[in-house]
Amino acid sequence: MSEKSVQVNIGGRIYSPNVKKEEVEGVVKAAELINERMGLFEKTYAVKDKQDLLAMCCLQLATQYIESEQRTITDKEVSDKIVSLEKVISEHLDKEK
Questions:
Q1: What residue segments make up the domains of the chain, in order of their start?
Q2: Is the pTM of this model over 0.85?
Q3: Residue 34: how many CB atoms within 10 A of its CB?
Q4: Rounded to 10 degrees, what is the CA torsion of 50, 51, 53, 54?
Q5: pLDDT (tens digit, 0 to 9) for every residue of the chain, 97 residues total?
Q6: DSSP states of 52-71 as a string?
Q7: Is there a smaller number of Cβ atoms within 10 Å at the N or the C end of the chain?
Q8: Do the beta carbons of residue 24 and residue 30 sit within 8 Å?
Q9: Dihedral angle, C-alpha 74, 32, 28, 53, nearest 10 °
Q10: How far apart (Å, rounded) are the C-alpha atoms in residues 88 and 97?
């Protein structure tokens, strides 16, 4: 997999990370999301220091990521239970035949 340098603006600074070609779109969208959140924090809390805005944005996005991971685990547990129930039902139906 070849890498490509992509330029993104985050908080008024230009960064050029090297990413896989298939990740370029995601990196650009992530930078846009960060800038949007920073703008909302700046308006909501009247914070002018970009470092504080970045920290608040990182905290919020990391919290959402962790919550998403926990939901994924829960979804897997539910899926496993469904498979287990399907097996029990199937075995029960086979016995009735």
A1: 3-96
A2: no
A3: 19
A4: 110
A5: 689 999 999 999 999 999 999 999 999 999 999 999 999 999 999 887 999 999 999 999 999 999 988 877 777 888 888 999 898 888 888 887 6
A6: HHHHHHHHHHHHHHHHHHHH
A7: C
A8: no
A9: -80
A10: 15
